[in-house]
Sequence to fold (386 residues):
Amino acid sequence: MLRMLQAATAVLCLSGCVDYSSRSLMIVNDSYDDTQVSFSSSSERQDDPRASESDYIYLVKDCLGVMVSGPGFSAGDDADQLFALEDESISRGVNLNNLTYAVSVNPRLSYEIYIDDFDEELVLSRVILMESDGRIDSTFYFAAVGDGVAHDLVITASVDGETKNATSPLSIESRAGPCQGVHGSKVYLGVFASPEIEDGILRLSVSEDSSASLEMAFSELPPVTLSGTLDKNGVLDIDDGGYRLEGELLTDVKLTGTYTGPNTVIRPGYPPENPGVFALFDATDTEVGIYCGTYEGSHTGELHIMQWGNKKISGIATQESSEFAAVLAQNIFDGTNFEFYVAGTSDDWVFNGNLDRQDASGTWSCGPAVVGSGEFSASHDACPQF
Fold:
């Protein structure tokens, strides 16, 4: 038995970029309960030092999963017929030509997942489809359940039995190990902002007993130090000095959440309802670079970037006049050149640029058809000090 969700979906983006016309469908494999699995994008799961190869996606068995973007295609006038559930199913393939999973959306639309040398390392737990302006995109959720490497995973989309598009191969490694969480003493560095009110940098120090001390250095206010906890499951809870911070580990090294404080204002109806957001990287054994700056163009706001070694990049962005604040997710980063986007917006608001040890700069664009664009710059020297 499969569950189905069909709803109108608003893509969160900057003011002027919101797309309220998209629709979503979800097919869930009820043979596997993924409610305790922590899923992240494929780019967030790459470059793990535990992986056998540098380009492998690395997962921990029974607790981590990865969201893999499926092949998108233009459905044109057939969009309404193709974007509908009828006798939908997720089934194991027959292993003929490496066919591992088959997803039937309706009698006309299906997806096939091919994995070389598959040994039950993964389970396909759900598939989400999105349709907007006649284009159908998809996301496949794979959970780690075995030990080994699922080599050269490829997803194809077929309409009326004809292949429309296919993804590039990727390999996913699944191993036993401690689930994502906080083990031992840790130090995190990051950034925070509440639109049009305050912004700055953070340093979070965590002890063996899960007690946490958070330093907040503001751009225009005196610094404060707050007390709270970051438990072994990676859940942050700080309620001190009029500030309330709640967050959790999004990956092994990245912690994000929302906050309110004596200077913030809750504005119902804006995403998120609590306007302050923060993001931190684990700086215990890896250098974290922080860059503070702004973006300009058809929209303006603050942009604060954080760099984890030469492997990961993230940050936060706010927009003036709309009370919008969001965490940024990585698409591409090679140590110098990067691309990231507002998390949860299907890449609708994208930053492209490059950085060195002191400065970051580049361009941004917003919307499936570019409805906003401009430039951004940020530097280490522009950040406040603890």
